[in-house]
């Protein structure tokens, strides 16, 4: 698993937005920025839709007031799902990242294998990166939702 002090791997992901989908190298996307990256097991799933993503939408201005340049939400879903989910959650101030083949999730060592329920997904976590270097990494224990919520990241900043 990636550790504090390490650089985010240079892996290609898709940014899903209202202007379409764009393949980007995540190391380049985060270069020169202070980024809050949070990941969750799946778009349109109960905790993710009811609490995790909405918390970052509600606290986006608070995070930006703490010097955060970008708030990015990652899930092992395709770009169409991430775009639709972002639109349904009024998350236009967030960067929605589709890790469709789980390449970044695997490179980070944060895979959650849900078997027949959904397959390879991301563990639930939040990290703060500065110029691509991990400064904070909060990985949730199984079936937990405490350390990766927006309020916990705000408190740590």
From TrEMBL:
Pfam family for this entry, one: Redoxin
Alphabetically ordered keywords of this record: Antioxidant, Oxidoreductase, Peroxidase, Redox-active center
Catalytic residues identified in the record: 48
One cellular-component annotation, GO: cytoplasm
GO biological process: cell redox homeostasis; cellular response to oxidative stress; hydrogen peroxide catabolic process
Domain Thioredoxin span(s) in chain numbering: 2-157
Top-level EC class: oxidoreductase
Domain of life: Bacteria
A molecular function (GO) term: thioredoxin peroxidase activity
InterPro entries: PRX5-like, Redoxin, Thioredoxin-like_sf, Thioredoxin_domain
Catalytic activity: a hydroperoxide + 2 glutathione = an alcohol + glutathione disulfide + H2O
EC number from the UniProt entry: 1.11.1.27
PANTHER family according to UniProt: PEROXIREDOXIN, PEROXIREDOXIN-5, MITOCHONDRIAL
Function: Thiol-specific peroxidase that catalyzes the reduction of hydrogen peroxide and organic hydroperoxides to water and alcohols, respectively. Plays a role in cell protection against oxidative stress by detoxifying peroxides.
UniProt family annotation: Belongs to the peroxiredoxin family. Prx5 subfamily.
Designated name of the protein: Glutathione-dependent peroxiredoxin
Annotated source species: Thiothrix eikelboomii
UniProt lineage: Bacteria, Pseudomonadati, Pseudomonadota, Gammaproteobacteria, Thiotrichales
């Amino acid at each position: 698993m990636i550790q504090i002090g390490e650089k985010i791997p240079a892996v290609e992901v898709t940014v899903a937005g209202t202007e379409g989908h764009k393949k980007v190298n995540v190391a380049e996307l985060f270069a020169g920025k202070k980024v809050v990256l949070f990941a969750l097991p799946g778009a349109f799933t109960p905790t993710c839709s009811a609490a995790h993503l909405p918390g970052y939408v509600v606290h986006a201005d608070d995070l930006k007031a703490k010097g955060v340049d970008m708030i990015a939400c990652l899930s092992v879903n395709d770009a169409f799902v991430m775009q639709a989910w972002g639109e349904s959650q009024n998350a236009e101030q967030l960067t929605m990242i589709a890790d469709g083949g789980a390449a970044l999730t695997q490179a980070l060592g944060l895979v959650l294998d849900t078997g027949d329920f959904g397959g390879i997904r991301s563990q639930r976590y939040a990290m703060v990166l500065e110029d691509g270097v991990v400064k904070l990494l909060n990985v949730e224990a199984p079936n937990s939702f405490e350390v990766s919520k927006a309020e916990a990241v705000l408190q740590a900043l």
